[in-house]
Amino acid sequence: MYEVSGKRNISLRGAIIGAVCLVVASFIGGYLFAGSPLTSRTSIPLSQSAGPPPDVDFSPVWKAWAVIDEKFVPASVASSTPIATSTAERNQKRVWGMIEGLAASLDDPYTFFLPPSEAEQFNSDMSGSFEGVGMEIAVRDKILTVVSPLKGTPAERAGIKSGDLILKIDGVSTEGMDVGKAVQRIRGPRGSVVTLVILREGWNAEREIKVTREVINVPIITTTARPDGVYVIAVATFTSTAPDLFRNALRQFVESGYTSLVLDLRGNPGGYLGAAVDMASWFLPLGKVVVTEDYAGHATNVVHRSLGYDVFNKNLKMVILVDRGSASASEILADALHAHGIAKLVGTNTFGKGSVQELVEITPDTALKITVARWVGPDGVHIPQEGIKPDVEVQITEEEAKADKDPQMDKAVEILRAM
C-alpha cells in the first residue's frame, strides 16, 4: 500500500519556538514562551562585550533611580510590603522592570522579558503537563485574545472559544496587559476559580465566565480509526515529545490499512519548529522546503528542509483541518503540506502567527523572548497576519458545537471520499 522506508527515528532538531507564544505556558498557558533548550541554532550573534551604546544618554535612567532611592514613600501601608525586602532584592526587581519596559517599547506582542518565576514556569510547561485552565492566549491588535482552548480542559468546558477577547481577569482590566502578566493572573492552584470577562464576535455585550483551575495533562496526539475508512490524527501542540508520538500515530495509520487521512490541527497553538519540520518530513522528499526564516537582513535567512522520511506514495489521500486556533508551527506544517500538493485545507482562516521568536538567556535564570524573523512558506509568501485561507471554508456555529456536530470533519470526509 505505502512505500515505507526504514527511516523511523524522529528527534527534535530545532529549538526556535514557533508558537504563538507566551501565555500558553501556564495554563497551559498561552503562547509558548520559548523555553529552555530554547536557544536557536540559528540565533543571531550577540556582542560578547555588552554595554551601553555610545550614542544613547542613560543619565535620565540613573537620575530616576536616584530619585526613587531618595524620595519614594509607599502610598499605603498595604503597598509598603515590598520595602521589607533587602536593598539587593529591590534593586534586582528594578532591573527586571527596566528590561520589561525595554521589551515593551518595541510594541511587539511576542517580545517580552521572562523574570525567574516565569522562565522556570515555561520550562515545566513544555513538558506537556500544566496547571491552570487550559487555553492559549496572545495579544492581538493590543487586546488579550484567546488563541485556542485545549481539548478536554476547563477552559473548553466553560465555553471559551478561539477568538474570544479577554477584557478582565478577576476584575482587573487587561488593557495594556502583556501575555506574561495575564498568565500570572489566570494561573493559580487547582480547585480555585478565575473569573474572566469575555467579549465574542456576535455577542451584544460582554459576559462573565468562571473557570475552575485544574492540572492540565495535554493529550498531544490522539488517533481515531473511523468506521467509514477515514483515519484521524489530531495534534494538540508541538512539544518536545510530539515527533515521537506522531511517528507512532503514523505507524498505527499504516497498520490500519486505511489510505485516507485527516490531520486535525484545529486549536493547536504551535510549539517547537523542529517538531513541525520532522512531521512534514514523513510526507515530503529529502530537501523539499518546509519553511524559511526571513531575518530581514539582520542575519542570513535559514531554510528548513524535509529530512526525507517520505514514507507515503500517491495512494495517500489527505486533508488538514485548521481554524482560528491553528497557529505558528501548525500553520507551518499545514502550509508546507498544502504548498507541495500533499493535502487540502478545510476549516477557517488560521491565526496568522507569521513571526519567529527566540529565547535569549539574559542571566542564568531569566530570558528575553524576542521576535527575530518572519516565516516564509515554500511558495515564497509570508504567513499573512490574517491567517492562511483554507481551500474549503467551513464554519461551525454555536448551535452545531452544542449539538456535538462537526461540519468541518464532515466536509473533510466528503472530500476524501471524492478523491
Automatic annotation (TrEMBL):
GO cellular component, one term: outer membrane-bounded periplasmic space
UniProt-listed PANTHER family: CARBOXY-TERMINAL PROCESSING PROTEASE CTPA (PTHR32060:SF30), TAIL-SPECIFIC PROTEASE (PTHR32060)
Gene Ontology biological-process entries: proteolysis; signal transduction
Transmembrane segments: 12-34
Alphabetic keyword roster: Hydrolase, Membrane, Protease, Serine protease, Transmembrane, Transmembrane helix
Record's protein name: PDZ domain-containing protein
Taxon lineage: Bacteria, Candidatus Kaiseribacteriota
Family: Belongs to the peptidase S41A family.
